[in-house]
Amino acid sequence: MKSGFTFMTMSEWRNKFNPTTETPLATSGDDLAAVNRMAMTAPFNVWTVVAIGTDGPQLVLPGLHFINRSGFYITNTPFSAKSAIGAYHDE
Predict the structure, then answer these.
(1) Could you state, in order of their start, the residue ranges of all structural domains in the chain?
(2) In the chain, at which residue ranges do the beta strands (DSSP E only) sit?
């Protein structure tokens, strides 16, 4: 069954969306405050690193998520509200 979700490598994702940092922002403190501000003003530029299970892969998913999050990215290029994109956080 086709999920309709497009997955790409982290390198492809970086090239397409141009994150503002090389590593994910933290889930607390000043980093979280910056992510929350961005989510209010430019929500299509916020991505969440999400762990799939305890031993599964980590994925970078569009939007602000709280369950199983391990970090955030803010990108210079926004994602489309109609897109379903994810990246394997393998680097």
Answers:
(1) 6-88
(2) 6-8, 46-51, 58-62, 69-74, 85-88
Helix (H, G, I), strand (E, B) or coil at 38: helix
Residue with tokens 């992510």, as numbered in its chain:
35
Cα–Cα–Cα angle for 41, 42, 47, rounded to 5 degrees: 130
DSSP conformation class of 67? T
User: How does pLDDT run across 40-57, given as a tens digit for each residue?
Assistant: 999 999 999 998 877 778
Whole-prediction pTM value?
0.87
Indicate if the alpha-carbon torsion angle 73, 78, 79, 81 is positive or negative.
Answer: positive
* 48 token code pair: 């969440």
Contact by Cβ (8 Å): 52, 30: no
**Are 74 and 19 a contacting pair, CB within 8 Å?**
yes
d(CA 79, CA 67): 21
